[in-house]
Every structure is written in C-alpha cells, then in structure tokens.
Amino acid sequence: MIDLLVAGGGPAGLATAIHGALAGLEVVVLEPRPTPIDKACGEGLMPGAVRRFEELGVAVTGRPFHGIGYVDGVTGLRAEGLFRRGPGRGCRRTDLQAALADRAAGLGVRVLARRVGEVRQDGRRVWAAGLTARYLVAADGLHSPVRRGLGLAVPAAAGRAAARYGLRRHYAVEPWSDLVEVHWARGAEAYVTPLAADRIGVAVLTSEQAPFDLQLARFPLLAARLPPPAPGGGAGVRGAGPLRQRARTRVAGRVLFVGDAAGYVDALTGEGLTLAVSAAGELVRCVRAGRPQEYERAWRELSRGYRVLTSSLLWARRRTPLAGRIVPLAARMPRVFTGAVNLLAR
C-alpha cells in the first residue's frame, strides 16, 4: 500500500515526497499540471530554506543575495540587514520546482497526472483519485480543494482588514543590489529579487486590485529603474490571492496539510518556503513514528515566529501613522533591524 499520497506537485508537496522517500516510505504525488509549474512568488529563498533544500539533495540555482533592504518607495531612505549565516538565493520558481521534481524522481517517487477529487477515509486508510494510501498529504496550495472539501477552511470574518493580493513580473535588467529590496509605499510593498546576472523579479503585495503597472506607479524611484512595459501591459504578470487563508486544523484523521494549504498569513516576511520544507520534515517524522496527531503541535511550534511577526507587521502596516514609520525606524535602529532579518533567515 502507498504510505504517503501527496496532493500537489509544488515545492511543499515535492519536499514532503522527498522527505518521505528518504525515510523509506512509498510516496506517490498527484499533480495534473506538467513540470515546471509556475506561480506568483517573490522567488527569494531565505538562507534557512536554501540549507534545508540542500539537505534534501536539491541544488538551488539562481543568484545569491546577502540580506534584506527596506526602502521608502518615494524618498529612497533605506535600511539594510545582512545575513550572518550565508546567503539566500533568488531562484526562479520554475527552476526550483523542476529541481525538486528531478530529485523526487531520482528517489523513485511516482507522479501521476490526476486530480484528487473526493477524499474518503477510515481508521486505517484513505482513498483519493482511485488510489488507496495510509495517509493523504494535502499540499494543494493557498485555496486547497482538499481543505475546502473536508470543511476545514475558515471563512473570512466580516469586518476584517481588506484582503491582500500578490502580483509578479520579471524584468531583463541587471540587478543593482545584492539584497532583496522591499520598497514601501502607501498601501503596497514591492519586492525586488535578483534572479540572474540579467534578470530581476518584482513582486507587489497590495490590498487594492489593480493592474501591475498601476501598482508599480506607487513606487516612482523603483519604476524609473525599470524598462517600460511591453505592449498589452499585462504580459508576464502572475497573480495570487487573497493571501490570508485559515485552516481549522493541520490533521484531519489520516489527512495532513502542509505548505500554503496548512494556512497562510501573508507573504510580507518571505518565510513561506522555509516553513513549508521544515514542516514537511516534521510531517514525515510524525507519520513514521505512527503519531500523526503530533504534527499539529509541531506545525504550530514551527510556524509561531512566522505567524506572530507577520501578523504584527501587518497590524502596523494597516495603521497609517505607523506604516509611514516602518522604514525610518528600521534605518534608525540598524542592530534591531539586522536582528529581525536574521530571525527570518534561520
């Protein structure tokens, strides 16, 4: 019988599959999309994520970056925090997913071009996509069909802050910094990630739904460094959202959730992939020990720092008097800012 049936062939699902295969489990991945799979993503891997992927035998390509810079999108005031334990890596999402898929295939993981569909389970096994397995791992993304199908999605509460969205575009531009720059403007942030000697990625996070070029106009200093958009304006833009997604639990019988499917706060701190690959290892450890219910506590412990820091920064972000002070405070307190950057880099 299949030990782990993984729904989703993105980084979280493939990291789980690799962890499982290295632990001696039989793993099958369900992914109807062909490799490589792209999505809206800042594409900056923090040093902790780079180390964890390399521990799985996955070589992360791309361009190193050595810290995070906060930049006022209008005045140009900046604060910089450098990593203490090695660089992060700007890596195209398609390159990362392809490298993970190659590693999984080399370990004998089968990938089937199927959708999960209905999920059924009893005390000993789970059925999905015409297959039977000991456990199903839902790694099917931000708007997880498995989470929704099992009634585990938590609806957004009335009166909550406006939903946030992400947009990403690549530019054939030589990187001007060896940091990931986060440009702050009223109501939006723009992340500039060096990806190669002749390419950068620009990702915008915002609560206002508007085309990429209108969002970019909030950052005049950044926009001035970029070439004009191609005819049609929307060419090459990918989007995602709403970003905040809540799940009632990470363990529902023999179904376990990992990656964005397990719940997501925001992309503001760039920790999503670090958490995903770390949680994948904990999930496999709990399954191998025959104590899958312990994964809920493990996930909460792993994600606590991410959830608290991201929620706190969002809270300040949404209050106009505080939002305008984020970059000036970071610039005035460089040791504190560098300390925070290195907490995220672990």
TrEMBL record:
Q: Which InterPro entries match?
A: FAD-bd, FAD/NAD-bd_sf, Geranylgeranyl_reductase
**Which chain regions cross the lipid bilayer?**
none
Record bears the keyword Oxidoreductase = yes
Top-level division of the source organism's lineage? Bacteria
Gene Ontology MF, one: monooxygenase activity
Keyword terms, alphabetized: Monooxygenase, Oxidoreductase
Task: Cite a single Pfam family from the UniProt record.
Answer: FAD_binding_3
Domain FAD-binding residues, every copy: 3-157
**Protein name as catalogued:** Monooxygenase
